[in-house]
Amino acid sequence: MKKIILISIALVTFLSCDIAKQVAGEILLPPTGGGETSLTNTEVISGLKEALSVAINNSSSLASKLNGFNGNDLIKLPFPQDAIAVKDYLTDKGLFQGQIEKFETTLNRAAEDASATAAPIFLNAIKNMSIADGFAILKGGNGAATNFLREKTTAELVAAFSPIAKNSMEKVELTKYWSPLVSKYNLSTVFTGKEKVNENLDQYVTTKAIDGLFVLMASEENKIRTDPVARVTDILKKVFGSLDK
After folding, report:
1. Domain residue spans in the chain?
2. 39 has which bridge partners?
3. Of 42, 91, 96, 212, which one is least surrounded by beta carbons within 10 A?
4. What is the mean pLDDT of residues 116-143?
5. Measured distance CA(177)–CA(223) in Å, rounded
6. How far apart, in whole angstroms, are the C-alpha atoms of residue 122 and residue 61?
């Protein structure tokens, strides 16, 4: 009987400690990759948040500098596809060529200006990452953390980013170059029978600016995954080092 009681006490004690550790996020997990180091839930979440924070800050900094968009072919905003007929028409007619070039440059200046205020919006979105999310992202390969952020926050980001982009367009006087171009084209539709083009650029700049930031974020995230030199903190070295073979 004494043995049974002792075994029961030991089992309860073990389970109690196990539950306490789980609540604290300190369950030791087996190595997640080819490394030797086991990781706790807390470490994985901390490492993923740190990686996203680094990627967000780096990408926002790159995007918001002069020519961050305009000088980067990966994310440069082109003439809006829906309005490409405007560009073709005006180019064929030899009209407003200088304004077309200024418009395309200024379009990217608006995206660069808006990106300067994007980091806090992205950072706020990673605060409540779950343990399940963390391990799925860690094992998900290149771009997994960026894709997680895109899936979870795009709608919220668009809502928050849209007024910023609009203010940025006003700041760089984008419509000063856009309105003469589209107005000239829309007048021609009376004779060509083509549809008029919407003059509102808010959605275009917002969507393209956010897309560009995600492209840069994925690049920064993948550096951390594949290049030990990019792991600039101890937690990044431990978490992503566990994936090294």
Report:
1. 41-241
2. 29
3. 91
4. 85
5. 38
6. 13
